[in-house]
Design a protein that fits this description.
mainly alpha; 2 domains; 269 residues
Length: 269
């Protein structure tokens, strides 16, 4: 069994091993170094916690590897789920999200990772645990307590720094979101206040276009009627087409206006 000092040292070693596994697992697909974890140092306390829970609870099932695997999946998934939930409650963000995985629970745990944790539990219990114990046993007894104290100091300082940094990050995100919401509200207010002006400006611009069309209407109509296959370069064809459509639109509007005036005269006549 562990003493408090050997427990702390074991926790630190397994946190470091977990960090190495995560870095390799995440860096290979990205093809670059990915420093995983909530904290800054090369350790992942969630792996240290999972390892200590597995080694403590599953030792009685040492002779039944399938129970080690099953209970390893369950125990590590509970730790991962609770850690994700706690971090989200405290900092209002998710540090990992498995929502896109086929089988997951609220995006906090998924079948793939839980299966991998079960396999890692087997490796931990049957392969890694004994060498780690042998390594710790080689530490001089008078160095165990100072070593454990240094580890606690490092982890505590790192955790405190990480909490401060994460809190600052959360506040920055909230401030950005507030600024974005304020900007959208101001834009909506500006549009509402200037809706009438925008409509008047739009009407004026279209009137200017209509007046421009009217200015060259007679000559342009003659050119198009006289040259039905009129063409040119690509850009010129587009200009000609737009001009033709504008003329046809104006012609239709003028005809409709004449028709309305005739009907008014007939009614008043």
């Amino acid at each position: 069994m562990w003493t408090l000092d050997t427990f702390i040292i074991s926790f630190f070693i397994y946190s470091f091993i977990g960090w190495c596994c995560e870095v390799v697992y995440c860096s290979i697909p990205k093809k670059r170094f990915v420093n995983r974890g909530f904290m800054f140092g090369p350790y992942l306390p969630i792996y240290g916690s999972g390892a200590m829970v597995v080694l403590t609870l599953l030792r009685p099932f040492y002779d039944k590897w399938y129970l080690v695997f099953i209970f390893g999946v369950i125990s590590t998934s509970i730790i991962e789920y609770f850690t994700s939930w706690a971090l989200e409650k405290i900092f209002k963000i998710k540090l990992w999200d498995y929502s896109k995985h086929p089988i997951n629970i609220n995006g906090r745990v998924c079948e793939l990772n839980s299966t991998l944790f079960g396999i890692m539990s087997l490796v931990l219990v049957y392969i890694v645990d004994e060498p780690v114990r042998d390594l710790i046993s080689k530490i001089k007894p008078f160095l165990l307590e100072p070593t454990a104290m240094v580890i606690v100091a490092i982890l505590s300082a790192d955790f405190a720094t990480s909490v401060v940094k994460m809190s600052a990050f959360r506040k920055a995100v909230e401030e950005i979101n507030r600024a974005k919401a304020d900007a959208e509200e101001k834009i909506k207010a500006f549009r509402a206040e200037n809706a009438e002006n925008m409509a008047l400006l739009k009407e004026k611009l279209y009137n200017d276009i209509d007046n421009l069309r009217a200015r060259y209407y007679k000559n342009a109509k003659h050119i198009f009627n006289s040259n039905p296959s009129l063409t040119g370069s690509k850009d010129m064809r587009l200009l000609l087409l737009n001009a033709k459509l504008g003329i046809e639109e104006r012609t239709a509007r003028l005809k409709e206006l004449k028709r309305i005036r005739k009907e008014e005269k007939r009614k008043n006549g």
